[in-house]
Design a protein that fits this description.
It is a single chain. The protein is an alpha/beta fold. The chain has 2 domains: 234 residues, Glycogen Phosphorylase B (Rossmann fold), CATH 3.40.50.2000; 166 residues, 3-Layer(aba) Sandwich (Rossmann fold). 46% of the residues lie in helices and 15% in strands. Strand 3 and strand 4 form a beta hairpin. Helix 8 packs across helix 12.
């Protein structure tokens, strides 16, 4: 009689003698197509996995001006056009993207024996589930955010549709990755996912490579103190709190100036509010900035403010910390695990402009303490959140997922044979 422990040991020996994995990674966005933090996460993770010896293929959305295939940082990038790429209905466009991804994935599998699928969020869920079944591969999924969390519940038919797609992807996956304990608890509570199926692996960060040390691209900020914030311009990022704080600062004749970078559906609304409230001297929404411009703006800022109402992780917090910049964040979501109040940063009450101003005033009045906290934050960011470490943890989880899937598949096959 075969010993299951012996079989698992044999499979383990096989896996450690084959460290190089063939990984098919699915993400709807990938640089230079950048919508949010997911794109940069996938880019950095894929590059580090390739650097560690794995054969990484990325399936992502393409467009007319991007090549269908390119190799960057030893990562093979395959861009596909959605079947209905000009459809203005987003859900229909996503459906067409998944059809194209599934077709391309099957094509790639004719020449490459993939070991694992790694999906990122619901937008590629249909393709990931289809490829899992057709190619008989284990599926690992990273959940970056959820529709329920973004909207503090499910209120519309579209939100209900997305929520259901998220649920389907989670339960089709052998293993899930989330970026924080907050997200782990969320999945266990809202989706009833078993704790053993969820691994917490944070997002990563690397020190920026700033080519320019000046603010020549923003001459209006030369010799001017400012507080910086950045993010997708949507309601859950909490930028209304900054507008309210700017209004209060104006009434109190406090000299604060907020610079907010990013694009999104609320940009015109917020700019209109700034104009209507006559706050041009206190807050400015400057729109999209490049990564280098973002890093320069962080470097030259007085402090960073991240006032999010919902934030599963908060990569922008690390972008501030890695430059030793004191940062104020909402006491909300994954950011609570990144910052220790008065040690590596400052906490404000979510949506509370008065709380924000209190933290800002303390930082401005205690510059020595602000510098010390910025330095401590930088040390934490460099030691705990480097992409090399994050990719190594992900690689180990991938190996475990493949191994456990093989063991379970073999065990199920033997059960079927016994019944026959």
């Amino acid at each position: 009689m075969t010993n299951p422990l012996t079989e698992k040991a044999d499979l383990y020996q096989e896996s450690i003698h084959k460290p190089r994995l063939n990984i098919l990674l699915l993400s709807w966005e990938f640089p230079p197509n950048v919508v949010g933090g997911l794109s940069r996460h996938v880019f950095s993770l894929a590059g580090q996995l390739a650097k560690q010896g794995h054969n990484v293929h990325v399936l992502t959305a393409g467009s007319g001006h991007l090549q269908g295939y390119e190799q960057t940082r030893d990562v093979h990038v395959h861009r596909v056009k959605p079947i209905n790429e000009h459809d203005h209905q987003f859900l229909a466009w996503v459906g067409g993207l998944n059809l194209a991804m599934a077709f391309k994935g099957e094509q790639l599998a004719e020449d490459i024996r993939f070991d694992l699928l790694h999906a990122h969020d619901w937008l590629v869920g249909a393709a990931a589930i289809a490829l899992k079944d057709v190619l008989e591969l284990p599926l690992l999924t990273t959940i970056h955010a959820t529709e329920y969390g973004r909207n503090n519940g499910i209120h519309t038919n579209i939100q209900r549709f997305i929520h259901k797609r998220e649920e389907q992807l989670m339960f089709a996956s052998e293993q899930l990755i989330v970026c924080s304990d907050y997200m782990k608890d969320f999945l266990m509570t809202i989706f009833r996912v078993a704790e053993k199926r969820i691994a917490v692996i944070p997002n990563g960060i690397e020190p920026p490579l700033i080519q320019s040390r000046s603010l020549t691209v923003f001459p209006e900020l030369t010799n001017r103190k400012y507080i910086f914030s950045i993010g997708r311009i949507v309601k859950e990022k909490g930028f209304e709190t900054i507008i309210e704080a700017a209004e209060m600062a104006k009434d109190r004749e406090q000299n604060y100036f907020f610079i907010i970078a990013g694009k999104g559906p609320m940009l015109d609304t917020y700019r209109r509010q700034v104009k209507e409230k006559d706050l041009a001297g206190y807050v400015s929404f400057i729109g999209y900035v490049t990564d280098e411009e973002r890093d320069i703006l962080i470097q030259n800022s007085e402090m960073m403010v991240i006032p999010s109402l919902y934030e599963p992780f908060g990569i922008v917090v690390l972008e501030a910390m890695i430059q030793a910049k004191p940062v104020i964040v909402s006491n909300e979501g994954g950011m609570k695990g990144l910052i220790k109040h008065l040690q590596t940063g400052f906490m404000m009450n979510p949506g509370d402009a008065e709380s924000l101003l209190e933290q800002m005033e303390f930082l401005r009045n205690h510059p020595t303490i602000a510098n010390e906290i910025g330095t401590k934050g930088c040390q934490v960011a460099r030691s705990l959140y480097g992409w090399k470490r994050i990719a190594a943890e992900t690689s180990r989880l991938m190996g475990d997922t493949i191994l456990n899937t093989r063991v379970n598949t073999k065990g199920n096959s033997q059960k079927i044979l016994k019944k026959v």
